[in-house]
Structures are given as structure tokens and as C-alpha cells.
Amino acid sequence: MTPMTIVTAHPNPASFSRALADAYATGARRTGATVQTFDATELHFDPILRGAHATPMADEPDLARLRAAIDGASHVAWFFPTWWAGLPAALKGLVDRLFLPKVSFLYEGGLPKGLLKGRSSRYVATMDSPAAWYWLAHHDALGGSFGRGTLQFVGFGPVTRNLVFGVRTLDERARAQWLSRVEALGAKDATAARSRPRSAGTARGLISGMAQN
Length: 213
Fold this sequence. Notes:
Blueprint: E1 3-8, H1 16-30, E2 34-39, H2 61-72, E3 75-81, H3 89-98, E4 105-108, E5 111-114, E6 120-126, H4 131-137, H5 141-152, E7 159-164, H6 172-195
Helix pairs in contact: 1-6
């Protein structure tokens, strides 16, 4: 079986972001994958990295469970709303606490090395902004900060993503199409992860672009 971990980060359980995550999990399980889902807004942990990287903080039980799930996963998927062109607070705090020096990355000869290689990842971000505004005004902010600056930096690869624009204006037909598409992606990612050996990647993964499919 393929171990997969899904992290959601929308505080409203009835949100479209949560519905997309559920559809993705359904598709993955259909292939026989084992899926663990964590909601960043319900986990009990201190989102502030107190002492920064100089003074390590002990993981709270919820954070330790999520860390173990990511360590044991072949694929990790993230579902979240885009607020202020970035991650919602719960997910940003989770990233700060999870991805630590000598745990998720280190520097060798002045260059970064991701320690989470051998795991693929996908993020699905919803937003009210239209596509043109996101690309022209925000210059693919999520791609720089989360896709390349976080996931690829710590070694995930390949990293793929889907951006769902104009959520407020999506009608029921468009939402149903997205749910069907994301369910199929869950099955696709589970199948790909099952056939992909858990081997170390290369430094190219840190600077390569991300696929959207």
C-alpha cells in the first residue's frame, strides 16, 4: 500500500477547500493507498517558533503525530485557502514548526540540502482572486514561497500544484468538475507514488519549476 498524508488548513469544515481534500482522499483510497488526514486548524501546537532555530522546541503530541506521518509517507498533499497572497496562519505556523534545520534541511558547503527527498507532494490552493490578478499582481506568490521556497527546499519532489481561482464565483457545475478532477488526481498521485522508489533526489529539485496538472 502507498502511505499518503493530507494536510488541510481551512477553519470552515464546510469550505470548498475541505471538499477538495475529501475528494482527493477518496481517489487515493480507491487505488488502495492508506491516507492520513490532518487539519492544521484543529491541531494543538504552538505556531510560534520560539527561540527561532537557535533553541529547539519539543514537538507537542499532535505535531509529533503529523511529523511521523510525513516521515512515513510517500506523498504529502496540502489543501488550503490563499489569504493575503500566502498561507493561512495555521499552516504557516505548522510549516515553521515542522521544517527545521538538521531535521528537514541542512547546509553543506554553504548550499542547502533537503532531507525529505524520496517524497512527492502536491498543493491545492483556493482563492477568490481571478487568475489574471494572481499572475500579474502577485507574480505567483505561492509558487515562490511555498512550492519552491518550502516544499522543494526541504527535498519534496516532484512538486505539483493546482490553483483554483475565483472560488466565490464558481457555480455548482464548475465545483463538481473540480471535485471530479481532484479525485482523479488523488488516484493518479497514489499510483505514481507507489511506483516511485524512495530514493534520494538531486539538487536540481531545489531550483526546478513546478508542474501544474
